[in-house]
């Protein structure tokens, strides 16, 4: 990596790193992502895994971007202005397409709740008309599922927004969190439904 030090002592990441496939970082030391530095794999479903026994620190305006971000650390500090962002980066072939509406009516993707629908049906109550359906209710205590894609308004063009990605943040001791974690669904625009949000799971002894 472009940085100073070792993941078994202290590594300071001081340059942007952009990957095109899954990455796994492991060590017994600390990882400090310095101010304004971006660690990214901004492709649908691309996984960034950080497994360290020391301290993970995202300094001001530092970013981690990916489809699935899985972090296990002894301690963690997410400084104000820093971001872990998996918005709109769910893969299209993750097996959870059941949350995507079947009809090409521009419905929103479903996940923990049903997706929105703009279709008017005079024979049904508004609450009986929806876009994508729900799923992953069995894993609500430890959510780690992708969001679903929104549907387009025609078969020829794909206007639906992508589903949100996944964030898992597990800290053995103390988590200081002033920054932002995002797992929103992608915007579908005026010709397609938005994707549903993904998942964020946070576990820490102290926060």
TrEMBL record:
Where composition is biased (Gly residues), the residues are 106-115
Q: Where is this region: Disordered?
A: 90-115
Native source species:
Anisodus tanguticus
Instruction: Supply the PANTHER family for this chain.
Output: EPHRIN TYPE-B RECEPTOR, TYROSINE-PROTEIN KINASE EPHRIN TYPE A_B RECEPTOR-LIKE DOMAIN-CONTAINING PROTEIN
Q: What is this protein called?
A: Uncharacterized protein
